Amino acid sequence: MSHDGARPRRKPGPALLALIAGATLVTSFGVVSYQDRSPADFGTPPVAAPVSTESEPPRVRIHDGRPPATATTDEPVRLTIPALRVNVPVTAVGIDSRTGDFAVPESVDTVGWYRFGPDLSAATGSIVIAGHVDSATEGEGAFFRLGTLRPAAPITLTDPAGHTRTFRVTAREHYRKTAIPLDRYFSRSGPPRLTLITCGGPFNPRTHHYRDNVVVTAVPV
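== Sortase family protein ==
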């Protein structure tokens, strides 16, 4: 499966991701100072390792999965990142009723917008979109090169009516999955920003997981 403007498919990668090791909802957040970082400070791009092709369902745990009383519906349906040749559909996702986890899209060519947080036109808070880096069966994911995205790169979200909102990258950060500040990235308050999350760092052939998370923050243009 391919999308207009998307980069060509390579051979399938070796590992299906566990996308994010835990997520949490919060109801308050102070103003964040976003600063550009030099490339040397940025996380390394995700790297695939020659391991088993056995697939593992993605799991993203939710600390508090209750929808907010003021949940909004201006959903993004497409994400475009010209610098990475990414042009992919966005699916609104919530909580998997069977597991209580974040309902991550199965396809690596689709990214998920967390619909229990801020929406496309939000004036405050973090619009969270998560995507796969790769898959044992499908190859490179939409966010395969997210770890190489540079400051000031434009990112555009589009709604069902064709209206767009453009953001520019202000930070790219690299965390151990056990250390990612989820309260910051899943906040519903503070200045409006777009948060993109995927896996990165070294791949563990024993656990079939990437060790880290790559997080890109962008602010409205």
